[in-house]
Amino acid sequence: MGLTGLHFLGAPVHAVLFDLDGTLLDTAGDIALALSRAFADQGQEAPGEAEVRTMIGRGAPMLVQRALAWRGLTLEAPAQAALLEGFFHHYGRLQEVDECAAQPYPGVREGLARLGTQRLPMAVVTNKQERFARGLVARLGLAPWFPLVVGGDTCERRKPDPQPLQWACTQLGVQAAHTVMVGDSVNDVQAARAAGMRVVCVPYGYNEGTDPRALPCDAFVQTLQELPALLGLPEPGGD
Questions:
Q1: Span 87-146, pLDDT tens digits
Q2: Known catalytic residues?
Q3: What's the angle, vertex CA 202, arms to CA 132 and CA 12, rounded to 5?
């Protein structure tokens, strides 16, 4: 079965783009830990993991702003910039000292492996800084499926702007109309719609604290193991 056999909503699928945090990987624990250490460096208490899960989305600068608002803190621009750099430092250190706890969600490896049998171009498009996203993809053994990783600092703008999705399509040599975005948040849906892509969502992600099951996407998959069948790829041994 070649690439022309993959389809969704009556149109061919030539590539799939994936969000990272909350879609491929559960990273909230690491993000909360790095944020806690950055706040502690400034003598402040950070939100806990449960609260941080509601703040993930739109990149680290927004995460820091939301965490400060949650604590009722107002910092001058230099102090806020230092807090952001502290978060980047501590988050990077989690990988450097092998303290990183992020893991793929159930069904992720199985779904990617099935799609990989079709030599389907795939990419990660995330608001996480590219260096951290690449590190996680490599660390968790997902790099063979994702030669292209687009981070929140790869392009001038990040999701929900469509620019990162459009840039990924250019790099993969595919049209947006023949590409599917897979995500867990309103940022993914809005970016996909603006880029002219179809969008599939998972119900287990972060979505900035709002239930992902309410997202106005084209379809849901309970796990990414269901994605190949949604795109018309039969199960092994099927017709």
A1: 999 999 999 999 999 999 999 999 999 999 999 999 999 999 999 999 999 999 999 999
A2: 19
A3: 95
Neighbours of 213 (CB within 10 A): 12
Domains and CATH numbers, the chain: 3-26+103-230 (3.40.50.1000), 28-96 (1.10.150.240)
Give the closest residue to 23 by CA, choosing from 173, 206, 149, 193.
Answer: 206
Who contacts 213 (Cβ-Cβ below 8 Å, separation ≥6)?
A: 203, 220
| Percentage, residues of the chain above pLDDT 70 | 97
**Angle at which helices 130-139 and 77-96 pack, to 10 degrees?**
20
Whether the bond between 160 and the residue before it is cis, its omega within 30 degrees of 0, is yes
